[in-house]
Amino acid sequence: MRYKLLGRSGLRVSELALGTMTFGEEWGWGASKAESKKIFDAFAKAGGNFIDTANRYTEGTSERYVGEFVARDREHFVLATKFSLWTRRDDPNFCGNHRKNMVQALEASLKRLKTEYVDLYWLHAWDFTTPVEEVMRALDDLVRAGKVLYVGISDTPAWIVSRANTLASLRGWTPFVGLQIRYSLADRAAERDLLPMARALDLAVTPWGILGSGVLSGKFNSGKAPKGARAAQTGQVSPQTLKLAQTVAEVAKEVGCTPSQAAIGWLRQRPGVIIPILGARTLAQLKDNVGALDYVLSPDQMEKLDEASAIELGFPHEFLSQEFTRDILFGGTQSLLDNHHR
């Protein structure tokens, strides 16, 4: 396991993160405490130090397990949790991005995690209700209070994230250093705006859903998808996605790895600081996912996967990339310009 700087910070995190939404069985598909401990220990043994949880994962069980598991060497681990999602139904102040929910959610998380601080605190999802000024000032207050070291943002439009960090820079508040998004070969929509923004602002990207709810593992092509899988059953997965999974399997065979490892490898080799979040339900799955570190995809294999999963970037990206548009922008000098910003 190697380590990366968490975006525009000096924090060192492992090149893979351990997602713990699977820790606990309250939602009907997670891992028992014993299996969760095996998964955690195997990740730590491999050199992983970046642990991702949230206050809503398995009704708080995930945080309780994680708190117990990291207690033996709390300072070694980079512990991340989140707020935003409801913690008490039918009460409007027990959900959302506002200061009251943020503060009470963090206090509850600290109790479950049995720690005095978290290394990284994520805003879990944008609520389109709370002013961005309130969010950034409230997060900065938590940092100044020593209860949070760094802040990140998840599942939020690019224009809001960029506005928030610009505001933080102008006001001297703590900026976001990480961006958590859904991103995989099966869903490359983030390439339109979120990923270019992350590279421009030097945000570390921690993708979730990296195997497309299991589809990229090839289990739906083979008919071995377990009953009750969180992904749609084979008949509900689009033919295009199944074809993509077949291409992933072909590349994996060339490399000598599993399809899951090939899909994770593609993510790891994308531009920018990409730290995939592993979401294993069993020790075997975790070991297979970590095994992706042993393989490197060739440029030809990356291109093959790129072509099989390509998306339309849409307006204005495709309009601005047209030769006609570039010609009227640069007056025929575009081929003479060495643009180091790209």
What does this structure look like?
40% of the residues lie in helices and 13% in strands. The chain is an alpha/beta fold. The longest helix is centred in the C-terminal third of the chain and has 17 residues, at 239-255. Helix 8 (239-255) crosses helix 9. A hairpin with a 6-residue loop joins strand 1 (3-5) and strand 2 (12-14). The strands form 2 sheets. Strands 9-8-7-6-5-4-3-10 form an 8-stranded parallel β-sheet. Strands 1-2 form a two-stranded antiparallel ribbon. The protein has 2 domains: 3-311, NADP-dependent oxidoreductase domain (TIM Barrel, Alpha-Beta Barrel), CATH 3.20.20.100; 312-342, no CATH class. The mean pLDDT is 95.
Sum this structure up briefly.
It is built from 13 helices and ten strands.
String of helices and strands: EEEHEHEHEHEHEHEHHHEHHHH
Give the overall silhouette.
globular
Number-wise, the strands total 10
What is the CA-atom radius of gyration, in angstroms?
Answer: 21 Å
Oligomer type = single chain
Unreliable residue stretches? none
For the largest beta-sheet, the strand count, sense and barrel status come to: 8 strands, parallel
What is the CATH topology descriptor of the largest domain? Answer: TIM Barrel
CATH architecture of the largest domain: Alpha-Beta Barrel
* Full CATH superfamily name of the largest domain: NADP-dependent oxidoreductase domain
- Distance between the ends: 29 Å
Q: How many distinct folded domains?
A: 2
Portion in strands: 5-15%
Tally of individual helices: 13
Give the overall pLDDT as a whole number. 95
The order of strands across the largest sheet is 9-8-7-6-5-4-3-10
Query: What would CATH call the class of the largest domain?
Result: Alpha Beta
Helix content class: 25-40%
Alpha-beta content class? alpha/beta
